[in-house]
Amino acid sequence: MLKVGFTGALRSSVNGHAQVDAQASTIRELLSGLVQRYPDLAEHVEQGIAVALDGEIYRDDWSKPIPDGSTVFLLPRIQGG
Amino acid sequence: MSHDTSYTKQKFKLIGSRVNRPDGIDKVTGRARYGADASAPGQLVGKVLRSPHAHALIKKIDTTKAEKLPGVKAVITSADMPDLTGGNRSMLDILENCMARGRALYDGHAVAAVAAVDEQTARQALKLIKVTYKRLPHVTDVDKAMQPGAPVIHDWVFTSGVDPKPEKASNIVQRNQFGHGDVEAGFAEADVIVEKTFKTEQTHQGYIEPHACLATVGPDGHGDLWVTTQGHFHFRQVCAALIGMDVAKLKVTSSEIGGGFGGKTHVWMEPVALVLARKANRPVKLVMSREEVFKATGPTSSTSVDVKIGAKKNGTITAAAAELRYQGGAFPGIWGMLGAMTSFACYDLKNVQSVGYDVLCNRPKVAAYRAPSAPMAAFGIESTMDLVAEEIGMDPVKFRIKNAAKEGTQASYGPVYGPIGIGPTLKAAQNHPHMKAKLRKNQGRGMACGFWFNFGGQTCTDLNIGVDGTVSLAVGTVDVGGSRASLGLIAAEELGIEYEQVKVHISDTASLGHNDTTEGSRGTFSSGMAAIFAARDAKDELCQRAAKMWDIPVSAVAWKEGKAIAKGKRHNNLAPLTLQEIAAKSPNTGGPIAGHNEVVADGAGVSFASHICDVEVDPETGATKVIRYTVVQDAGKAIHPDYVEGQFQGGAAQGIGWALNEEYIYGDDGLLQNAGFLDYRIPVCSDLPFIDTEILEIPNPNHPYGIRGVGETSIVPPLAAIGNAVSMRLACE
Amino acid sequence: MSGFLVSTKINGDAVQFACPTDESLLDSLRNRAGLTGVKEGCGTGDCGACSITLDDRLVCSCLVLAAEADGREVGTVEGLSDGMKLHPLQEKFIEHAALQCGICTPGFLISAKALLDKNPKPSEKEIRFALAGNLCRCTGYDKIVRAVQAAAKEMRKK
């Protein structure tokens, strides 16, 4: 079981929760599972989302496995300059 | 989570050495070719007509006289750039920013363009285009744009992130909130609370090379684009989509780039050049003037920031809150959100909240500028940190060290940190000789911290070994600051050969798979990672070939110090084979030897810096001069220390300019008053001292060599470091 | 087009071209003489990227009419090296990593040479003020000044 945190405007897509429980072994699985539960999240995933696993931000690698017990955070996709 | 620490024991032969860069001679002899340095037979000169108004309806554009002028081969308006975005709002924003669609949204917004046989004819043609405008009320200040009653830029913008969703359109694009804990309870516990508002003005990346491109599109839908850019693959994708070309049929070649800093990560006039080229069926060279660069590319946001920090007398911060308002120009952006995310990232806080607003106004479409949005947020937070430290009577560095984030801290923007460098950079700054140096009359000292995310991204690399054993490394990340040298070192290190045997090239879009833009401090990190894996791929192949040459199983072959060696009692009498020897025989052992890698280089790791600054303030005029500056920053692993130092120094100089001189000045008429280097004054050589640097190496567990991105973080602390230094000097009165 | 025939010497070579009377020397050098080492950064004489010497005088070529080069000698970055042998300034710029993107480098080399030709032993302050007309956005000038100091030292040995 993973604890998944949400920041910023993503919270309003998951009924205002700051954190939900989820089960997934990869980032792709996590995102598709969450979108099924919270359809409003689909728009954000479409526009761009980043996933932080234990502090490291992953923007593209959705096949990344999520180790059991990781701390997961969903963030808007960000860019640099 | 366990980290891969296999690199920490690595002894490098070449990594960390200060070699000459491979493109050095071209650049000191004038041979290197930048965006405006290419020409094609039959080329036309492109020029853009721009709105002289901050906000206006475009009632009519009459191009008939311009089209009739001898020597004019194409005239275009938005009518020549139909909406092919299929409802993709952000793509339509880009299209509309490249060429106004019925409404000019800022001073300098493109409304038409021409291609003609020479400069004079093109200029004349622009004068012959008659545009009928109806001026509209405008707003250019971020706070004013948020007020009810302000002219609304887009009637389809309804603030997201607020509950209930508004029924009226406004200039507030979105509200984003980050943080955790209970700030109200935290402030109630505080012995001391400091609350302050800060404003920062808009600045430009200020690259010395204006945007320039040479575009060719044939009637068969095939095209070429030579362009100065930070991301030629991204440009290919966007341009092809906007003008209706197949991606594979548009070949984009990146020229050498004369500075970008985020400003060349987006298209501004490239789609316009391609459409002109297609309409004229001739190559079109389109180069921006410096005035156009200031008015119509992507400066950074101007902001308004409220900060509130509460602490106990012993120095523990009990609560921290900020509201940040960022204008993104005439189109929605995420800048306020980014500012809110970076706000308190350096600190370990139990109760923290940052709220970011993204606001529209009649200014150019904001683009990323080196650690976008972080410098302004840091200015507010770091200045307030000093004020709190002063209130409780604590040394500002000690105060920061006490509250610094560390491994296991929940960041203010959400995730929990792994191993990070803020503590070490603070300690290093505290112990730096600069901190102990004596200050003279009228001088003050300040320090500040900074944070940036750093990114990885899609990367693709080819490593080809010639028959003489020299190595060609083809990468797709544009070299903005000297990364070719670092990538050459990496390839040579992995293969165990001399640096001089490797030549690094930046490939065009036809020759490699997709590579993400060089931004987010990702160039050396990502292409370095891909180069390592491509080299390891090549080493496997080299061992295969050696096995064939010796006629032994490949399991008995290993690669060591640039040679294939035969292992085991049965074969170790065989003399090692050098890379050259294997390469020379390659035609007979299987053909060309190469290594290849595609990787999504994620896990780039966050970056922290601490800066120390001494200023001298003229007591009569207030003129402020920076007399000493030190940058301490974590690089993970400095592949080529000269270029890491260069990033630290360059970012610091930009931050110093931002703090002391640079600002966009908009008049009441909504027009940009200082669109040139005379009145938009960036630091010159005589403004600055030598900039000392200290590179810390806290390895990044997600990279084979421990590399962290370094390009951006150094612009984050200077605004506050200088502000704090000046405040200290004034406090001494 | 009414034109002007310019007969000039560029880096020691006789060159002739015709151009409109209002064309800048910068544009003529880049578009007619084929010398793209000189760069336009601003077109208004504020950035120094177009620095050249005109009869040994350091000027911004964007502020000079091409016609003014008629009968005069022009020096550009392409004329700094002697065949395969780089000028000490060019060598030191590479050695000291005094360039990142390199767009300002030709201008700096011309300005630095103009300084060292007049003042072979400049102080740090003199170097900084002599180069204050050349903008660099990448380096913060630190390594540029060090490179000029090193080149000056090298040149004094000869």
Describe this structure in words.
- The complex is a heterotrimer of chains A (81), B (733) and C (158).
- By secondary structure, chain A is α+β, with helices and mostly antiparallel strands.
- Chain A has 3 helices and 5 strands, in the order βαβααβββ.
- A 5-stranded mixed sheet of chain A has the order 2-1-5-3-4.
- Chain A starts with a strand and ends in a 5-residue tail after the last strand.
- By secondary structure, chain B is of the alpha+beta class.
- In chain B, strand 13 and strand 14 form a beta hairpin.
- In chain B, helix 7 crosses helix 8 and helix 20 crosses helix 21.
- Chain B starts with 23 loop residues before the first helix and ends with a helix.
- Chain C has 2 domains: 77 residues, Ubiquitin-like (UB roll) (Roll); 70 residues, DNA polymerase, domain 1, CATH 1.10.150.120.
- Helix content of chain C is 33%, strand content 17%.
- Chain C has a 5-stranded mixed sheet with strand order 2-1-5-3-4, with helices on one face.
- Classes of the chains: A alpha+beta (81), B alpha+beta (733), C alpha+beta (158).
- At the B-C interface, helix 1 and helix 20 of B face helix 2, helix 3, helix 4 and helix 5 of C.
